[in-house]
Amino acid sequence: MALRDARTGGVTPSPVALRLNEYFPLxxxxxxxxxxxxxxxxxxxxxxxxxxxxxxxxxxxxxxFFPAVILTSFLFGARVGTFAAxxxxxxxxxxxxxxxxxxxxxxxxVMGLTFYTFTVGIxxxxxxxxxxxxxxxxxxxxxxxxxxxxRALLFSELQHRVSNNLQVVxxxxxxxxxxxADATARTALDEASRRLGVIGRISRxxxxxxxxxxxxxxxxxxxxxxxxxxxxxxxxxxxxxxASGLTIAPERAVPMALIVAECIANAIEHGFATKSxxxxxxxxxxxxxxxxxxVRDDGGALPDAFDSNVxxxxxxxxATTLARQIGGDFTLTGGKTTVARLAIPVS
Length: 347
What we know:
Elements: E1 2-4, E2 11-13, H1 15-21, H2 31-51, H3 65-76, H4 78-95, H5 107-177, H6 183-202, E3 214-215, H7 216-231, E4 236-241, E5 247-248, H8 250-271, E6 277-283, E7 290-297, H9 314-325, E8 329-333, E9 338-345
Parallel strand pairs: 4-6
Antiparallel strand pairs: 1-2, 3-5, 6-7, 7-9, 8-9
């Protein structure tokens, strides 16, 4: 089966045909069996030529031997194909080239055998060249697969080391906090440590070596679980509502992770400081080339005079700045449920 190339109008072999070609010549077949099989094919060609005597005009002495030689070369290689060509040439010379039943050498015999030798030589050479090219292609594909596997392993190791380094830095900040007496400085170090810890824990899933986007739903679920685990608040639960198939671009992963993590941490710190609760992360449908990620909590309403644009909170300023960096918009609104809303362009 073949596939037609829309650009050239040509026909290219299907992947199944290309895979099948890789098994030939049959190198696992024992050499004696290959030569016996070649004799069987030449014998079949001889019988077909004898059967066609009443219908074939003079000058077609070798016509049935060509397919047998090509098939033998394809199945068992050039060496066995050459053996089949010699056997077919001898049979045709003795039985079909006048004067028949003899090995007389004259001008007609020389011309016929020369034509036969040239034709089967070209056939065998082309089949051998094709099979050598297939073997080279297989070796290149195997090498490419090995290189791709090595690259993936190295990339994974790099991500692992980056994650570990960030975790170490977060731990150092936590240790440094113990030596600081000022409450404001301790809070700043604690928040910095938390943010680095979040990036460190999720860095392994932010990128892949192919540069493809990751699964957004799984990304948000892992992020929420890590932030809640780090907070030490088992009484606060979460849920992620997200349509399947959504992806997150690698270059947006870190800013989005920090924004969502800030929203979850803010809900835990201010909404559930003295009580348990539930946080919902909802990914909305695409509207006007935007899709939204909302972090909702039932921890209580915001103050009546609250305005996210004039707040001095470092977390809110970070979320707003990061949202602008990726071309999005961040807002925080209150009511019975506090909603942190991140709108991001689709492309």
